[in-house]
Write a structure and sequence with these properties.
Elements lengths: L1 H23 L15 H23 L8
Helix pairs in contact: 1-2
């Protein structure tokens, strides 16, 4: 199950990073093109949330959860 969260976090991080980076060059990812229907600030906040959320998912998947279980 850890690998699923790790891969999901990686995909979120990469999609957020690419959408921000390519957006600076005027290129839009087709999968995330619906975000441009919102204002630019809302779209940027969602993309940053994807980036940070992906990092959190990857970090949490790497933790040893046995010390937290009782």
């Amino acid at each position: 199950m850890k690998s699923v969260y790790s891969v999901g976090g990686y995909i979120l991080f990469v999609m957020g990073f690419l959408s921000i980076l390519l957006g600076l060059m005027g290129i839009k990812l087709t999968l995330l093109a619906w975000l441009d229907n919102f204002s630019a600030i809302v779209a940027l906040v969602i993309k940053l949330g994807m980036l940070i959320g992906g990092l959190i998912f990857m970090y949490m998947s790497r933790l040893d959860h046995s010390e937290f279980e009782s």
